[in-house]
Design goal:
Elements (H helix, E strand, L loop, with lengths): L1 H13 L1 H14 L4 E9 L2 E8 L7 E8 L6 E6 L6 E6 L6 E2 L2 E2 L8 E8 L5 E6 L6 H12 L2
Length: 150
């Protein structure tokens, strides 16, 4: 109700052109709205999925991970928009001692938090999701054993 009153006042004082410009600016600033962002165990890996309502003015997505014992996020994947609006990433490096070029500390432990940053000309938007539950020691060990043979 309050929003409607503010829009009506803006229209009365400044006219249709100003109202259209303000509404367009708000739409550009929030060109991508996240409609889904989840992380779940998939065996010894973690499947991260996200979906945006529109990719208008989206220049990229950056996915980062942080364990509860860590102070900073480590980028695990960067994605260029393809127009499909729904994406997924299989994080196979959660329990490895080295995740490609980014090291995962041996003392890192869950719960893990994933941060998705949506990049665009109107500014970056960041979203967080926490990986629910903790895998068993068997899953963690199996992930470490598999990483030795890659």
């Amino acid at each position: 109700m309050l929003k409607f009153v503010l829009i009506r006042r803006l229209f009365r004082r400044s006219g249709l052109a100003t109202l259209a410009l303000v509404l367009w600016s708000v739409a550009v600033a929030y060109a991508a709205t996240l409609t889904l962002f989840t992380a779940a165990y998939d065996g010894a890996n973690v499947r991260v999925e996200w979906e945006v309502n529109s990719e208008t003015d989206v220049t990229g997505f950056e996915l980062a991970r942080k364990a509860a014992s860590e102070t900073t996020y480590t980028t695990v994947n960067s994605v260029t928009p393809t127009g499909q609006r729904r994406y997924q990433y299989l994080d196979t490096n959660v329990y490895r001692t080295t995740a490609g070029s980014a090291p995962v500390p041996a003392n890192a432990s869950g719960p893990y938090t994933y941060r998705l940053t949506v990049r665009g000309p109107g500014g970056d938007q960041s979203y967080l999701t926490v990986l629910a539950g903790t895998p068993s020691a068997v899953l963690r060990s199996w992930g470490t054993i598999k990483s030795m043979f890659r």
